[in-house]
Amino acid sequence: MEKYLAVLCFLLISLHMKAVCEERQVYIVYLGEHSGNRNFEEIEEHHHSFLHSVKGSKQEAETCLIHSYKHIINGFSAFLTPEEASTVSEMDRVISVFRSQTRRLRLQTTRSWDFTNLLEANGDLSRVNGEKLLQRASYGKDVIVGVFDSGIWPESRSFNDEGMEPVPKSWKGTCQQGIAFNSSHCNRKIIGARYYLKHYEAELGPVKEKMEFRSPRDKNGHGTHTASTIGGRRVPNASSLGGFANGTASGGAPFVRLAIYKVCWQPDPLNVVVCPDGDTLAAFDDAIKDGVHVISLSIGGNTSFPYAEDGTAIGSLHALKRDIIVVCAAGNSGPTPSSVANVAPWLISVGASSIDRIFQSTIVLGNGLIVQGRTVTPLRKTKKYPLVYAVHVEIPGKTTNLTTGWCFPGTLSKKHVKGKVVFCRVGFISQALEVRRAGGVAAIFGNPYVGKGVYEIPFLLPGTTVLQNDRATIVSYILNNENPTATLFPGRTIIGTGPAPFMAPFTSLGPNGIEPNILKPDITAPGLNILAAWTEASPPTQLHQDHRVVKYNIASGTSMSCPHASAVAALLKAIHPDWSSAAIRSSLMTTARRVNNVQIPITDAVGNIATPFHYGAGHFQPSKAADPGLVYDASYADYLLFLCSSGTAFLDPSFKCPKHVPPPSDLNYPSLAIAKLNGNMTVSRTVTNVGTGNSTYTVSIVPPPGYTVEILPTKLYFSKIGEKQSFSITVKVAASIKETKFEFGWYAWSDGVGHVVSSPIVVSAA
């Protein structure tokens, strides 16, 4: 009873807060890092003092405070008007004040790790080293990964702790209780769990019980999926609905410890998950204090924000200071240029690409023509049905020239659709629901994306998606036959397809919108149609009309590629506990590959050769990353020096910028980006030997078209592990170049005995 009274009181306070703070927005006031010996009460009183100076009363100041960050990060979030925010920003000791972003996730593995290992071995089964990497890392057993997401479904077999050792003594976190979640749900696998609601409820109102659990428990499925991709135990005979993708499900680091930070909530049933910056920053503050080694954050917007106005950038900078690796999704806003998110150079930004698995379904048209579609929707029986084009069966006046044929809700005529297969120009969940509402027995959808990347959805009626070049074939058949028919056959899982990987059609692209002199994304990893654990509290489509329950589900997005990279980062941390987060990013990037499983360059979904704006340095290769030969290291001070060149050094007021600041391109990064080059530029890089003691590395260069690249010296000599050597890179614009578009090249250091340390070059002329 006391628990429910407490919840009721909190809801009433939240409603009162929203009423008092009407017409105001949530801002984050960033004050840097805590120093001194203030207790929590004194810290909160200090934060109140800033608000009191712009509010009408002390009570209003206290009411409008949302979060007070008390552990590592010094700051708070509160309701402010733009005028009040401006006033606070001018106060002493205030570093930045910015409108808190409410980021949204749109939900866009049995095979992905096998594919990664096989790709790395160039298809040679005898050279697959994935198990050796796991053994070398002790399966990640001493590494703690903080998962910032929508929570976890602790009963999943992926999270059992059988045979695992006691929780590491370094762990300082907690298992926070809530609705349908208590301390018994934490174990030696899920070692901690917290949830964050203050910002969400202050801005959007109380959580709806039908939509969410007020606890770390996952109602949405996204968080369970990402957590099991990172550290799920091996589960045989796992599959999605209908038996698709059957195999042994496993995370990349099966013995890694998971710490759950639920910062994402679902306010409505439309697949939109809300992750407020204010709550995310509170999670960073706790996770750093709790003792995590890696933070996996499958949260990205459709744009990037200046570092001083980005809660993820600020939180990850504090994590970086303590050598905590932060891995983020690059975003699902592709193929729009400069759409990449999470672009701070101190975090790892991950794009999404395919694996060598498809779910093929055969369609036989009435004239005998065979079209191969894609589906993960079970089909109970195979039968020939009349086939209609949505354009011809719409309710008059319900569509326009722009929307005809799209099967939008309420547009199809039941009279003309009942008992038929409907061809819709595109296929998402809403289109399938419309065909079902109108009485259709099945649907054929055109792929919403250009090219071959199909985002699989377990529709609520039999349905399959065809690639865009097959859409015209089906439409032509319907238009030229008096009684068109179609027979849909059950889908099947096909492994070993190629070429793979190709870049997912939705993966966000560079150039970096905040600082184009830093290449983002950094790498790519599997993110298209990935099977992983799922919540049993929501159906696979998350629709209220869907009453199916699954233990494993297929999902797509950079949300899925991010945890793949997080798992590998955890393994690398286990193997090399003394490596910095920069060294681990470097090892992932410089050992990445740019060719697919048929040994030709990786392409985008359309078939065009992909560039570093798609995949950064390339597709990650975990075993090679464990032994990169050389690494590009960078310290906290190096990043602050970079911020000096970007004009945001004030993020740490204790750091004084030098009189002569190097350009942003001079940051010791594993890639080189120079935007708007005028004439020539020389930058420096320093590499640290982590390979063999006595070694010599020779450089090779593929300059971007229209530019010359000179690297001096051309050879680097090392006599011991840990030794550092520096070199200069001079990039010069050719006299004949006229276009200002970005061009791409590469340089690589090789020791001739297996270590090839490769870096992309991205340049545009002024």
TrEMBL record:
Domain Subtilisin-like protease fibronectin type-III: start-end pairs: 666-763
Write one Gene Ontology MF term: serine-type endopeptidase activity
**InterPro entries for the chain:** Peptidase_S8/S53_dom, Peptidase_S8/S53_dom_sf, Peptidase_S8_Ser-AS, Peptidase_S8_subtilisin-rel, Peptidases_S8_3, S8pro/Inhibitor_I9, S8pro/Inhibitor_I9_sf, SBT
Domain Inhibitor I9 positions:
26-105
| Positions of region (Disordered) | 214-235
- The record lists the organism as Coffea arabica
Tell me where in this chain the Peptidase S8/S53 domain is found. Answer: 140-618
Q: Which CDD domains does the entry mention?
A: PA_subtilisin_like, Peptidases_S8_3
Please list which residues make up the signal peptide: 1-21
GO BP annotations of the record are: proteolysis
Which residues are the active-site ones? D149, H222, S559
Q: Which family does it belong to?
A: Belongs to the peptidase S8 family.
User: Which keywords does UniProt give here?
Assistant: Hydrolase, Protease, Serine protease, Signal
Q: What is this protein called?
A: Subtilisin-like protease SBT5.6
